[in-house]
Sequence to fold (524 residues):
Amino acid sequence: MADKPRFFITTAIDYPNSRPHIGTAFEKIGADVQARYRRMQGYDVFFLMGNDENTIKVVKRARELGKEPQAYCNEMADQFKEVWRALNISNDDFIQTSEPRHHAGCQQFIQKVFENGHIYKGSYEGWYCEGCEEFKTEKQIKEAGGVCPNHNTPPVRRSEPCYYFALSKFQDRLLRFYEDNPDFIQPESRRNEIVSLVQTELLDVNITRSGQNWGIRVPFDDSYTIYVWFDALLNYVTGIGYGTEAERFAHWWPADVHFIGKDITRFHCALWPAMCFAAGIAPPRRVFGHGFVYRKDDASGDRIKESKTLGNVTDPMDIITRFSGEAFRYYFMRECPFPGDGDFSWLRFAEVYNSDLANNLGNLYSRVLRQISLNYGTVLEGTAGQAPEVINSEGSVHTAVAEVQQHLEACQYNQALQKIWLLILDPANRYADRTEPWKLVKQDKEAAKKVLYNLVEPLRQGAILLKPFIPRAAEVIYRSFNFSRPWEEVRYEDVVTRPAQTEPLRLLADLPDGKPKPLFPRIA
RNA sequence: GGCGGCGUAGCUCAGCGGUUAGAGCAGCGGCUUCAUAAGCCGCGUGUCGCUGGUUCGAUCCCAGCCGCCGCUACCA
Fold:
């Protein structure tokens, strides 16, 4: 195990104020595809997700429901996990920031930064709403026309003592860091925004609040709790044992990639590395700010504003129930470019599902299996040791795999998937039509057997290539045959270098009436 | 206002100095029937946002303009 390269992946932790929506699911799937791909390629992967619970809103929401904050958080965490399970997200851990391990690690971290001299006491002055019992930003007040957006009352100017993190001291070091690590911020377009922001001016950040019971106490002054980002970002280290399991932390840190929404790149690309510098740990290696997905109206083609108050939020579970978790994964990875924004519409979803999954992949699987079972029972005798002929006329399989990998590693999932269809699956359907094994079998049963043997190959290749994207369907395809390489051990290289078939090819799929169950039943 | 991005077929996008600008989906026509009424073949005269410039040559480089969008810090 020690010689395996390790790979530590995280996603943003989510607010448990409401259930997960399609945007949060998009992020988790994108991260999961990467995690699954890296595992296949021999990395020792740790994939961390979680919920961000130390906020005043949690307390308010819990109170509204007549619950204890902790109980509320746990219930919400269960709801999140339920959705992630339905989407077959392979996270290794799920951290709740209300957990003791997070509290302990967090306190140790802030203490360290304090001792290193990067935290000082000052005071925060801003617009305070007495109804909300919290400070409002200039922007919030301005947008609401000079009043509190919640209470419609004018805020008061208020000043309160607090602790600051001396972010401004890290300006030069951050700029040097970006220069030395040009790939740190992904995608590239986000990079300029951050660099110019840091170049302009870095302001110290207020990292404490007073008068709160819920949250993490500041160890060097327990009348304060740690405020927002200084707490939330730390889940990435407390989740792997910072402050509680030194050895484990040393093994996994720094993170190879943080997957986050593009709206919070600033905190991850400027504040977070500076916090790491201040605490004397390495900064993360890469931050990937993905795009957003929007709901699109089928009739008008317009983007719909989803909001809790309007009650029109699309629940991922509705989509999963109507189609499947695999279909959900496929749609968002194929249809929405991960670095950019994308749209979801029910109509489009059904189109993509039927066209790519049911008609193309699913039907290819069905027709090949059916031909074999119809004419040869379950065994293609004499195929042991035989190598299938290459039927891909679009270019070499080697090139196809290289292209898919390149896209996968750049998180261009939509392009990776398009390549799999274009270079592996489509040619197989064409080959079947060209060779017509259903006719050939009547004249030359041996020749038809060969054709079918050749047709199994793109199914094997497709299953391997699709494993990170639609792991369940890929597994069903792969396990329908007695391929020599165990499913758990397949790698992308196996697509090109086919492990020798020691036994004659055999169908292991469940075949009621000689027909396989449809992988993706067509939706009317 | 400042910095940055985008504008390519009905839709989603690829291409980013050089033969007739490409894919998928949708649409239309034909073939086929092994298969999930699936598959295959054929069909696009698109001002590559507009106007100039650089170049032997620009969708791809530069400038200006028009239209969208992001960031411009303490809500995560």
Observations:
- Chain A has 20 helices and 17 strands.
- The longest helix of chain A spans residues 346-376.
- Chain A has a mean pLDDT of 89.
- The longest strand of chain A covers residues 119-129.
